[in-house]
Design goal:
The chain is an all-beta fold. The protein has one domain: Beta Barrel (Thrombin, subunit H). 0% of the residues lie in helices and 50% in strands. The mean pLDDT is 85.
Length: 118
Protein backbone atom coordinates (compact mmCIF):
# COMPACT_ATOMS: atom_id res chain seq x y z
CA UNK A 1 0.00 0.00 0.00
CA UNK A 2 1.29 3.40 -0.88
CA UNK A 3 0.51 6.53 1.08
CA UNK A 4 -3.17 7.33 1.07
CA UNK A 5 -3.52 10.53 -0.98
CA UNK A 6 -5.97 12.05 1.51
CA UNK A 7 -4.55 10.33 4.57
CA UNK A 8 -3.42 11.87 7.81
CA UNK A 9 0.08 12.31 9.17
CA UNK A 10 0.64 10.63 12.52
CA UNK A 11 3.79 10.76 14.64
CA UNK A 12 5.44 7.67 16.08
CA UNK A 13 7.16 8.40 19.40
CA UNK A 14 10.02 5.98 20.00
CA UNK A 15 12.14 6.07 23.15
CA UNK A 16 15.80 5.16 22.77
CA UNK A 17 17.14 2.17 24.66
CA UNK A 18 17.75 2.65 28.37
CA UNK A 19 21.29 3.64 29.15
CA UNK A 20 20.91 4.60 32.81
CA UNK A 21 18.97 3.52 35.87
CA UNK A 22 17.14 5.52 38.50
CA UNK A 23 17.88 5.33 42.25
CA UNK A 24 15.59 2.27 42.51
CA UNK A 25 17.42 0.34 39.78
CA UNK A 26 14.74 0.84 37.12
CA UNK A 27 15.84 1.44 33.54
CA UNK A 28 15.37 5.03 32.40
CA UNK A 29 14.48 5.24 28.69
CA UNK A 30 16.61 7.45 26.50
CA UNK A 31 15.37 10.48 24.56
CA UNK A 32 12.26 10.14 22.41
CA UNK A 33 12.56 10.31 18.63
CA UNK A 34 9.58 11.65 16.69
CA UNK A 35 8.93 9.89 13.37
CA UNK A 36 6.26 11.52 11.17
CA UNK A 37 4.33 9.05 8.98
CA UNK A 38 2.22 10.67 6.23
CA UNK A 39 -0.57 8.96 4.32
CA UNK A 40 -2.18 7.06 7.21
CA UNK A 41 -5.80 6.23 7.96
CA UNK A 42 -7.28 6.01 11.44
CA UNK A 43 -10.57 4.41 12.39
CA UNK A 44 -12.33 3.88 15.73
CA UNK A 45 -12.28 0.48 17.41
CA UNK A 46 -15.14 -1.10 19.29
CA UNK A 47 -15.00 0.28 22.83
CA UNK A 48 -17.20 -2.35 24.44
CA UNK A 49 -14.49 -4.76 25.58
CA UNK A 50 -14.21 -5.95 29.18
CA UNK A 51 -11.99 -3.03 30.27
CA UNK A 52 -13.59 -0.31 28.13
CA UNK A 53 -15.03 1.52 31.13
CA UNK A 54 -14.11 0.68 34.70
CA UNK A 55 -14.87 2.42 37.97
CA UNK A 56 -11.74 2.33 40.09
CA UNK A 57 -12.15 4.00 43.45
CA UNK A 58 -13.51 7.48 42.86
CA UNK A 59 -12.66 7.73 39.16
CA UNK A 60 -13.92 6.36 35.89
CA UNK A 61 -11.32 4.79 33.67
CA UNK A 62 -12.14 4.96 29.99
CA UNK A 63 -10.16 3.05 27.40
CA UNK A 64 -10.54 4.34 23.84
CA UNK A 65 -9.19 2.46 20.88
CA UNK A 66 -8.25 3.27 17.32
CA UNK A 67 -6.97 1.20 14.44
CA UNK A 68 -4.06 2.75 12.54
CA UNK A 69 -3.47 1.86 8.88
CA UNK A 70 0.03 2.98 7.84
CA UNK A 71 1.82 2.57 4.50
CA UNK A 72 3.43 -0.82 3.89
CA UNK A 73 6.90 -1.00 5.41
CA UNK A 74 6.20 1.43 8.26
CA UNK A 75 8.13 0.31 11.35
CA UNK A 76 5.68 0.29 14.28
CA UNK A 77 6.83 -1.43 17.45
CA UNK A 78 4.84 -2.62 20.47
CA UNK A 79 6.88 -0.25 22.65
CA UNK A 80 6.05 2.83 20.54
CA UNK A 81 3.48 5.49 21.25
CA UNK A 82 1.61 7.32 18.48
CA UNK A 83 0.48 10.96 18.49
CA UNK A 84 -2.74 11.57 16.59
CA UNK A 85 -4.08 15.09 16.86
CA UNK A 86 -3.40 16.14 20.43
CA UNK A 87 -3.69 12.65 21.97
CA UNK A 88 -0.92 10.13 22.58
CA UNK A 89 -1.90 6.46 22.18
CA UNK A 90 -0.07 3.32 23.27
CA UNK A 91 0.47 0.60 20.67
CA UNK A 92 -1.57 -2.41 21.82
CA UNK A 93 0.37 -5.54 20.81
CA UNK A 94 2.29 -6.10 17.59
CA UNK A 95 1.51 -4.41 14.30
CA UNK A 96 0.60 -6.66 11.39
CA UNK A 97 0.81 -6.51 7.62
CA UNK A 98 -0.57 -8.39 4.62
CA UNK A 99 0.68 -9.41 1.19
CA UNK A 100 -1.78 -10.97 -1.25
CA UNK A 101 -0.76 -14.50 -2.27
CA UNK A 102 -2.58 -13.97 -5.57
CA UNK A 103 -1.32 -10.62 -6.81
CA UNK A 104 1.67 -9.98 -4.55
CA UNK A 105 0.26 -6.55 -3.70
CA UNK A 106 0.86 -5.28 -0.20
CA UNK A 107 -1.65 -3.96 2.25
CA UNK A 108 -1.15 -1.49 5.06
CA UNK A 109 0.63 -2.01 8.34
CA UNK A 110 -2.21 -2.31 10.86
CA UNK A 111 -1.74 -1.39 14.52
CA UNK A 112 -4.21 -1.33 17.39
CA UNK A 113 -3.90 1.82 19.50
CA UNK A 114 -5.20 2.47 22.99
CA UNK A 115 -5.77 5.63 25.05
CA UNK A 116 -6.46 5.25 28.76
CA UNK A 117 -7.94 8.20 30.67
CA UNK A 118 -9.16 8.63 34.22
Amino acid sequence: MRELPHGDTVTILRAAAATTQDVYGNDVPGPVTEIPVPGCSVSPRDGTGPAANEILGDRDTVISGLTLYAPFGTDIRATDRVRIGGEIYEVDGRAGTFRSPFSGSTGPVVAALELVTG
